[in-house]
């Protein structure tokens, strides 16, 4: 069992967390955007092998945060609240 | 040159102490250029090369594999072959694969040990039975064999299931596909490799792609650990690593890579002669021809490129197995492994031209690539040979994510995604 660091609750079992997608995938703004822009936002993923910046949610406390992680070794490099004020 | 396998050749080798067998496929040095390059020496890549040579007469083909052929997901699955899908587009696709599997041993002159032992998807409530009836109706309308099973029918094919009154997942019935079953996964890779090699295809192992050659906005070849190789048409069938190659080619895909685990018990005497899937536990199981109980379940919950899987998911799978079959409580697990699967939002594959012209995709099979190998190979070969879709591959083009014409098989076929 791997422990993931929630910036609010500290280290918890990996089963308490849910993956939420690439960090930095910002919802596009505007009514006249081309459909490709929406498709990029909704579906395309970086899916890196190695260093990754991802959005996760700690289901138990309900907070979303950014976790930097290696997708090969599963080593966690950092865990930061979305606003940046908490860090574990 | 490899020889043709027959009852007579088996008999002669028996008398000669099995000393006359030759290498099943050639291992040539890569040439500087080919008519087509296939990246990935798994089932889909090898099948693509075989059908390029057989169906389209294009034999100046190289299959480039970074490790050894069949060493990725082809060697890491649970060997189930089935076509119990819901949407007409999927039925065309997996139905093609299933039909080709049924003639594959003869076509390749290689015994892939297809065993049509049947598969039952269990229903654990009256609601699931209604959904089961809907699925059976859809399969029958689409021309795929399906039967709606009663609890007695399930008891007949899987008598060791937990039918006790206090079972956590009681059986209300199931969806039965008689033609479903298993095949020998390594034999599929080796059989395609041997047949492709006989037709002139170069299978090049230990050859990793470092970069794509892009000239005039088109893909013209690849740089590899074994030199630069050029071709006018390039196909990739690299499953969980599709995003990694796409990044080298300068685009992104609608894919997340996850580990999918499986495990196998010690071999025991024959006790289960069909494939049983329970949507309630998320676990499916069959018995191999050697006697091992082969167990699969859902995806790991964490995107990963680590080919090992994590413990919580394995615990869920084993707990689910014991809910289904308490008799397996004494079994010892021999091996556990994971393959990296390329999961797409609608759980359907991506087949078509990539954003980089001349580079074609066969990816996104997620948890279900093995059963689709003959179709994936046929369709990618058609794309590489003609540059165009046929009616079966057209709905699976990358453009469906912009047009919104998704083929949502996660819900349609009840598979665990």
Quick structural summary:
Chain A is mainly β. Chain A has one helix and six strands. Chain B has twelve helices and 18 strands.
Overall average residue pLDDT of chain A: 92
For the largest beta-sheet of chain B, the strand count, sense and barrel status come to: 8 strands, mixed
Oligomer: heterodimer
Count of helix runs of chain B = 12
Report the strand count of chain B. 18
Ranges of chain A where pLDDT stays below 50 over 5 or more residues in a row are none
| Major sheet summary line of chain A | 4 strands, antiparallel
Helix share bin of chain B: 25-40%
Structural class given helices, strands, pairing of chain B?
alpha/beta
The sequence of SSEs of chain A as H and E is: EEEHEEE
Largest interface in this structure:
A-B, 28 and 23 residues
Proportion of residues in extended strands of chain A: 35-45%
Report how far the terminal alpha carbons of chain B are from each other: 44 Å
Average pLDDT score of chain B: 95
Number of helices of chain A: 1
The global form of chain B is: globular
Radius of gyration of chain B (CA) equals: 21 Å
Structural class estimated from helices and strands of chain A: mainly beta
Integer-rounded radius of gyration of chain A: 14 Å
Specify the helix fraction band of chain A.
under 10%
Helices and strands, with pairings:
The complex is a heterodimer of chains A (88) and B (417).
Chain A: E1 3-6, E2 10-13, E3 17-22, H1 35-42, E4 51-58, E5 63-70, E6 76-81
Antiparallel strand pairs in A: 1-2, 3-4, 4-5, 5-6
Chain B: H1 7-15, E1 33-39, H2 43-56, E2 61-64, E3 80-81, H3 88-102, H4 104-108, E4 119-123, H5 126-141, E5 147-149, H6 151-157, E6 173-177, E7 181-182, H7 185-198, E8 202-204, E9 209-215, E10 218-224, E11 227-236, H8 242-249, E12 256-267, E13 275-278, E14 283-287, E15 292-303, H9 311-324, E16 333-343, E17 350-353, E18 359-363, H10 373-386, H11 400-403, H12 409-412
Parallel strand pairs in B: 1-2, 1-11, 2-8, 4-13, 11-18
Antiparallel strand pairs in B: 3-7, 4-6, 5-6, 9-10, 10-11, 12-15, 12-16, 13-14, 14-15, 17-18
């Amino acid at each position: 069992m791997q422990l993931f660091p929630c910036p609010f609750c500290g280290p918890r079992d990996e089963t308490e967390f849910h993956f939420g997608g690439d960090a930095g995938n910002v919802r596009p703004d505007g009514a006249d955007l081309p459909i490709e822009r929406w498709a990029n936002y909704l579906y395309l993923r970086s899916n890196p092998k190695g260093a990754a910046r991802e959005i996760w949610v700690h289901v138990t406390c309900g907070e979303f945060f950014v976790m930097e992680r290696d997708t090969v070794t599963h080593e966690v490099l950092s865990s930061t609240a979305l606003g940046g004020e908490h860090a574990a | 040159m490899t020889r043709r396998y027959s009852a007579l050749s088996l008999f002669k080798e028996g008398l000669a102490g099995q000393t006359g067998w030759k290498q099943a496929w050639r291992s040539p040095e890569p040439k500087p250029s080919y008519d087509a390059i296939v990246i990935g020496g798994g089932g889909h890549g090898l099948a693509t090369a075989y059908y390029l040579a057989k169906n389209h007469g294009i034999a100046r083909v190289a299959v480039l594999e970074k490790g050894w052929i069949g060493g990725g997901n082809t060697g890491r699955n649970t060997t189930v072959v089935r076509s119990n899908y819901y949407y007409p587009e999927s039925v065309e696709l997996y139905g093609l694969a299933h039909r080709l599997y049924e003639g594959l041993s003869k076509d390749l002159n290689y015994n892939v040990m297809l065993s049509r032992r049947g598969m039952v998807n269990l229903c654990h409530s009256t609601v699931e039975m209604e959904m089961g009836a809907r699925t059976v109706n859809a399969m029958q309308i689409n021309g795929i064999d399906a039967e709606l099973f009663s609890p007695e029918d399930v008891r007949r094919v899987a008598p060791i299931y937990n039918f006790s009154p206090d079972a956590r997942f009681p059986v209300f019935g199931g969806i039965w596909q008689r033609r479903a079953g298993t095949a020998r996964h390594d034999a599929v890779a080796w059989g395609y490799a041997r047949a492709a090699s006989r037709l002139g295809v170069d299978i090049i192992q230990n050859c990793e792609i470092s970069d794509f050659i892009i000239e005039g906005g088109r893909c013209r070849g690849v740089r590899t650990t074994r030199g630069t190789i050029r071709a006018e048409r390039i196909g990739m069938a690299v499953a969980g690593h599709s995003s990694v190659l796409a990044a080298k080619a300068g685009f992104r895909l609608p894919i997340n890579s996850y580990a999918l685990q499986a495990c196998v018990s010690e071999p025991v005497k024959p006790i289960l002669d069909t494939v049983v899937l329970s949507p309630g536990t998320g676990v499916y199981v069959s018995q191999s021809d050697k006697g091992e109980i082969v167990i699969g379940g859902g995806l790991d919950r964490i995107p990963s490129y680590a080919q090992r899987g994590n413990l919580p998911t394995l615990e869920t799978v084993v707990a689910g197995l014991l809910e289904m079959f308490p008799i397996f409580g004494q079994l010892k697990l021999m091996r556990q492994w994971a393959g990296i699967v390329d999961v797409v939002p609608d759980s359907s594959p991506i087949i078509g031209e990539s954003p980089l012209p001349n580079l074609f995709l066969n990816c996104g099979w997620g948890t279900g690539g093995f059963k689709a190998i003959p179709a994936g190979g046929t369709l990618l070969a058609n794309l590489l040979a003609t540059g165009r879709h046929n009616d079966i591959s057209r709905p699976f083009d990358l453009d469906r994510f912009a047009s919104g014409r998704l083929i949502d098989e996660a819900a349609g076929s009840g598979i665990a995604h």
